[in-house]
Amino acid sequence: MIAKDTVSSVVVFFFSLGAFVLAQNYGGGAELFPRGLAVIMMIAAAGMFLRAVFWPAAIPEGTPKMERSERDVITFCVIATIGYVALIVPLGFVTASVAFVIVMSYALGMRNHLVIWLTAFCFVGALYYLFAHVFHTPLPRDLILELFGI
Amino acid sequence: MFHDIFTALIEMMTIGTIVAMIAGTCLGICLGALPGIGATLGIALAIPFTYGMGPLPALALLAGIHNGSSQGGAIPAILLNMPGTPGAIVTTWDGHPLAQQGKAGGAINLSAMSCAVGGSLSALSLILLAPPLAKVALAFGPPEIFWVNVFGIATVAALLGNDLLKGFIAACFGLLIGTIGLDNVSGHERYTFGMLELVNGVATVAVMVGMFSLPPAWNLVRHARKRQSAAASINKIRIVSEKIWTIAGVWRAWSVASFIGIINGILPGSAIASFIAYNEAKRVSKNPEKFGKGSIEGLAAAECVNAADNASALIPTLTLGVPGSNVAALMLGALLIQGFQPGPQLFRDAPNIVYGYSWALVITALLLVPLGGALASRIFANVLRIPTTLLLPLIIVIASAGVFASQNSMFDVYVAAFFGVVGLAMIRFDFPIAPVIIGLVLGAKAEFNLRVSLMMSAGDYGILIFRPICIILIILTILIVTFPLYRAYQDWRKRRESGGERQVSAEQ
């Protein structure tokens, strides 16, 4: 908890300092608000740091500690999500989403092949139909759909 | 006022709006029944889908999700002793013992009825209390509106988390994000780093969906084991619908819980309303000894209070544009997306929308009786069978599609993913997320009113202080900020005293 607050206060302080410095050239009054906010954030971060170092008993209880295995799985999910988002443009929404649902389900330990494949195709297909034909909002162009000439 | 209220009711009675309310309520019950999901994630995911809808069906859908998820949380709480939402923790105390006595069906019926009573009374309080407050707020000038925004941000920062400093950092972070893009007054670009996509600022929907839906989705893996055992035990539960309660037996609990819930909604930041309502219901009960062992009144109070703060939490949101909870912040965003500026002028400019939404909250609360009763809950309880391993990628796919479709922009999807990671880091480092969104939503308005005030006074800051309403708002803001400090001081003193006592007893 103390280490968490020390680290986060340092990160927040330098982030705010960066925001403060970047805002100095805006002019015309545009710098007033962001610089004021950055100063408040720096003061609060300094307060957090001092509290963590000199008065750790005053830190309110935080979230319970996460098990290592849980942390690993969440990290995997985050990386997989970033990968999925990065692949939407090159592969298209349907292909990337079907692949993402299938890969994630298997990677997280599900082994019911029929449910995984059926859900992936039906769910993503229904979502695509909903956006393209009900909301009239086309999703990014797609590899699979192009193969089928849709 | 009454003419507007009844006209809005008539406008709500279209097929599209009625379907949206029913669909929203069913969806809300399902989402509430899934531990780790609930109203906030549900509404965050649904908002991008409302772009293509008219304002009334869109708000009706969101109202249904909001009320439905309150009752949905009771299903796993009663059947499996596993609260679907934080508010349902108290529901487990009497709900699950009732299920163990073979009265699960009756308990779920009672929970639906209690939510309907709490939810509809809360919505009626919104209809009756909001217009007079909006009338007062309409007289506010830019300096007062600036302080109202500051008060709102300070309230959420100070009371929604459990750490004042972190709350303020989160709120300032949200306000800073709100400054990205072209400055409204001077036309200068701020924090755009030469990116064209950032000139119009960061899309509120992308930040909301990223922060409110991705971290809970990733964290679902933490509930995976619990969910697996829950799914396995669904088959073993027999739900027989029987009447186990009478209005005469629960009216005291409903009255107390509704009152506490409504007040709690108006005054944001208290997460312990269900505990207070439960204790008060126990105090006024004729059978307090039954509480915790399957008390009808205990369950009625717990469920009634959960729904009673839904609509009343929107009173400061709709009248002052100051949201007091996560869901209220999302609703503020939803109104902005539909092209409405929340605040007192909404009652003057679009009364059909604001009263229509209030009616949607009343109707969807009442819909909980048929939709959330035992038979329906037997169906909705089956959502617990959906494996987390499948649910997680599906939520992420819905979020991505919704964010993309909101402005046809892949950049917004990247922004959502980025803020998802930021949100996850904030949760891990115990920073609250709601102040970020509220800062983002209110930031531009607060800055605009600050700058206009300074222009009005030719740069004299006195305009922000020496006005009666400003003074009241400044005092309120100071009180709100100092309250957690006082609470922390009291906790510290208690800890010191108990530490001293332990030391004395150890010496003895």
TrEMBL record, chain B:
<feature type="transmembrane region" description="Helical">
    <location>
        <begin position="464"/>
        <end position="486"/>
    </location>
</feature>
<feature type="transmembrane region" description="Helical">
    <location>
        <begin position="413"/>
        <end position="444"/>
    </location>
</feature>
<feature type="transmembrane region" description="Helical">
    <location>
        <begin position="40"/>
        <end position="62"/>
    </location>
</feature>
<dbReference type="InterPro" id="IPR002823">
    <property type="entry name" value="DUF112_TM"/>
</dbReference>
<keyword id="KW-0812">Transmembrane</keyword>
<feature type="transmembrane region" description="Helical">
    <location>
        <begin position="253"/>
        <end position="278"/>
    </location>
</feature>
<feature type="transmembrane region" description="Helical">
    <location>
        <begin position="198"/>
        <end position="218"/>
    </location>
</feature>
<feature type="domain" description="DUF112">
    <location>
        <begin position="18"/>
        <end position="438"/>
    </location>
</feature>
<feature type="transmembrane region" description="Helical">
    <location>
        <begin position="313"/>
        <end position="337"/>
    </location>
</feature>
<feature type="transmembrane region" description="Helical">
    <location>
        <begin position="357"/>
        <end position="380"/>
    </location>
</feature>
<feature type="transmembrane region" description="Helical">
    <location>
        <begin position="386"/>
        <end position="406"/>
    </location>
</feature>
<protein>
    <recommendedName>
        <fullName>DUF112 domain-containing protein</fullName>
    </recommendedName>
</protein>
<keyword id="KW-1133">Transmembrane helix</keyword>
<feature type="transmembrane region" description="Helical">
    <location>
        <begin position="110"/>
        <end position="133"/>
    </location>
</feature>
<feature type="transmembrane region" description="Helical">
    <location>
        <begin position="12"/>
        <end position="34"/>
    </location>
</feature>
<feature type="transmembrane region" description="Helical">
    <location>
        <begin position="168"/>
        <end position="186"/>
    </location>
</feature>
<feature type="transmembrane region" description="Helical">
    <location>
        <begin position="145"/>
        <end position="161"/>
    </location>
</feature>
<dbReference type="Pfam" id="PF01970">
    <property type="entry name" value="TctA"/>
</dbReference>
<keyword id="KW-0472">Membrane</keyword>
